[in-house]
Specification:
- The structure is a single chain.
- The chain is built from seven helices and three strands.
- By secondary structure, the chain is mainly alpha-helical.
- The protein has two domains: 99 residues; 58 residues, no CATH class.
- The chain has a three-stranded mixed sheet, with helices on one face.
- Strand 1 and strand 2 form a beta hairpin.
- Helix 1 runs antiparallel to helix 2, helix 3 runs parallel beside helix 5 and helix 4 packs antiparallel against helix 5.
- The termini are far apart.
- 20% of the residues are buried.
């Protein structure tokens, strides 16, 4: 077994690379950068699954930064990896007191969308073609109960969250 320090450094490096490529893609929106993101995600996915098989869930005992890096790698897996994402999600749920609840909500919503269901927490939106910096919120299951679900896991009301995301990213999110 590879030592834990090497493994955590590897996870951090993988996430840092994919995040910098995603940031570049957001600026350029080029096909070349999109392909680079896909290629790095594929490499990360394969490597992360090996790590997961060896040491299991990346909990807060590895440090919050490593835990976030692991989440980002799992969050960016494609639809065909939904079963792995669900497995990781169940471990996150068991560890909800030690993780950022937004990460949990984002993965729940991503998996539900991949399964053709409406999201629960309102964390997922998609760009609207032809409208620069404008996004549409994916449909939410029992919309009237979304703020209750969000509060249950420690998140602010959806309206506040969307306003914050819109300000931070300088985008418009349509409901």
């Amino acid at each position: 077994m590879e030592n834990i320090k090497n493994i955590t450094n590897k996870i951090l490096k993988m996430a840092k690379r994919e995040q910098s490529l995603r940031e570049k893609l957001l600026k350029t929106k080029s096909e070349e950068d999109f392909q680079m993101v896909k290629d790095v995600d594929k490499i990360n996915r394969k490597e992360f699954k090996k790590i997961f098989k060896e040491i299991g869930y990346i909990s807060s005992e590895y440090g919050n930064e490593v835990q976030l890096a692991a989440f980002l790698i799992v969050q960016h897996m494609p639809k065909e990896d939904t079963s792995f994402m669900k497995q990781y999600l169940s471990l996150m749920k068991d560890d909800l007191g030690n993780i950022n609840p937004l990460n949990y909500a984002q993965l729940v919503d991503r998996v539900r969308i991949y399964e053709g269901k409406n999201q629960l927490y309102g964390t997922q939106f998609t760009s609207i073609e032809g409208k620069k910096d404008t996004y549409k919120l994916h449909k939410i299951f029992s919309q009237e109960k979304v703020d209750f679900r969000r509060k249950e896991i420690g998140l602010e009301p959806l309206k506040q969250y969307l306003a914050k995301i819109s300000r931070e990213r300088n985008i418009t999110i349509l409901r």
